[in-house]
Amino acid sequence: MTEPRLGNSRNVTPPALSAAAAIAVDRATTEFRRGQPVLILGSQGACLAAAAETVAVASLRRLRQASPPLLVLTGRRAAVLGLAATAAPASVANPITQDERPFLANLPAGADAEAVLRLADPTAVAAALPPTTQPPHFPDELATASIHLAKLARLLPAAVVSALPARAADEHLRVAAQEGLLAVWAGDVAAYETTAAVSLEPVGEARVPLEGAEDARIVAFRPSDGSTEHLAIVIGQPDPAKPVLARLHSECFTGDLLGSLRCDCGEQLRGAIAEIARQGGGILLYLAQEGRGIGLVNKLRAYRLQDQGADTADANEQLGFEADERIYLAAAEMLRRLGFKTVRLMTNNPDKVTGLERLGIAVAERVPLVIPANRFNRDYLTTKAQKFGHMF
Ligand SMILES: Nc1nc2c(ncn2[C@@H]2O[C@H](COP(=O)(O)OP(=O)(O)OP(=O)(O)O)[C@@H](O)[C@H]2O)c(=O)[nH]1
Ligand SMILES: [Zn+2]
């Protein structure tokens, strides 16, 4: 049996980020989705970067004008391609593995936008030969920021970057403004996800009687980055002075809405609502973190890899992601905003318990939520127990 993974090390209280910086990062993710290059500034230099998945022909040309482009992959993706050795798994002493560091490779001469995508996407047909030579030195913080931007844009975690000559930041910014390129600071990109997660505002609330839980209301919380709202479904009138029965449910379009049999989400969602109502009230947080935080499109790619034999954790890693990319900052913040400091957490996932506790929400008790396996999700549930430490 494989060692259970450690909880997500990003479940810590975040540094502050100004509204202007958050907006710049937000806009940069949109540019990544559109295949446009972005200027990334750091303490050790500057670069132009574009997402590997979407990079437009003109963007690649613009990058080449600056300097020979490099491909940035996550350590995990590089290991899958045989470009980097897989490092030892994370341990309590060393929670950051080599796999989480960016891996840089020279882009093969003449590689076009399609070849870049093939290097980043394990589900693409006939992946091009990977580059073999080690690239020149490139600042880690810029490479990491380019991967973060791709993840924030819900794209494959890979980018192309071109180093810019050493100049004052103002000079880079002036040139970028002339060309209409957006600019971000690497440090702001690093702080963005966690800042957005805690700056939530309740923006809408209504009574919505649910089947089996007629006394229910939904409160929508909007993150400051304008991304998808998280929903709190409050059933009955839970007493904030007592531990509240709570469920953190990560969005699953396929399971929750379509009744997919590949996972247990749909049944867990309805089962949790019914159980909370049966116990006299509580809260279900419906968190916008589809596919364990990699997004629906990447989850579909992960399913395709699973159909070729990978398990649910390996498939994420082959795509270049962590096996679980979720953070529970938004969940902890919503509980606080609703007045709850202690929960009886309905979950089988130990990461949710440690994640919430690290973020200042006490977990008085873990309440199991077990759904019988079917022939399509049996392997998935076994992997959850063996690799993620789920307690069934
Ligand atoms: N990347 C990926 N995500 C998946 C896969 N199958 C299901 N998911 C996602 O996994 C998440 C499951 O969420 P939860 O049920 O809240 O969490 P859990 O980790 O199973 O923990 P508990 O149900 O609380 O025990 C959802 O976001 C699903 O979309 C898969 O094969 N790959
Ligand atoms: Zn699901």
UniProtKB/TrEMBL annotation:
Binding site for GTP: 247-251, 268, 290-292, 312, 347, 352
Family listed: In the N-terminal section; belongs to the DHBP synthase family. In the C-terminal section; belongs to the GTP cyclohydrolase II family.
Reaction it catalyzes: GTP + 4 H2O = 2,5-diamino-6-hydroxy-4-(5-phosphoribosylamino)-pyrimidine + formate + 2 phosphate + 3 H(+)
Gene: ribA
Protein's name according to its UniProt entry: GTP cyclohydrolase-2
Keyword field: GTP-binding, Hydrolase, Metal-binding, Nucleotide-binding, Riboflavin biosynthesis, Zinc
InterPro entries: DHBP_synth_RibB-like_a/b_dom (IPR017945), GTP_cyclohydro_II (IPR032677), RibA (IPR000926), RibA-like_sf (IPR036144)
Any single GO CC term annotated in Swiss-Prot or TrEMBL for this entry: cytosol
Top-rank taxon: Bacteria
Domain GTP cyclohydrolase II residue range list: 205-368
Record's signal peptide: none
UniProt-listed CDD domains: GTP_cyclohydro2 (cd00641)
Cofactor (UniProt): Zn(2+)
Function field: Catalyzes the conversion of GTP to 2,5-diamino-6-ribosylamino-4(3H)-pyrimidinone 5'-phosphate (DARP), formate and pyrophosphate.
Entry's Gene Ontology BP terms: riboflavin biosynthetic process
Family annotation (PANTHER family): 3,4-DIHYDROXY-2-BUTANONE 4-PHOSPHATE SYNTHASE, GTP CYCLOHYDROLASE II-RELATED
Any Pfam family the entry gives: GTP_cyclohydro2
Cross-referenced HAMAP family: RibA
GO MF annotation: an example: GTP binding
Cofactor mode of binding and number, as noted: Binds 1 zinc ion per subunit.
Active site: 324, 326
Pathway listed: Cofactor biosynthesis; riboflavin biosynthesis; 5-amino-6-(D-ribitylamino)uracil from GTP: step 1/4
Endoplasmic reticulum as UniProt keyword: no
NCBIfam families recorded: PRK00393.1 (NF001591), ribA (TIGR00505)
Enzyme Commission identifier(s): 3.5.4.25
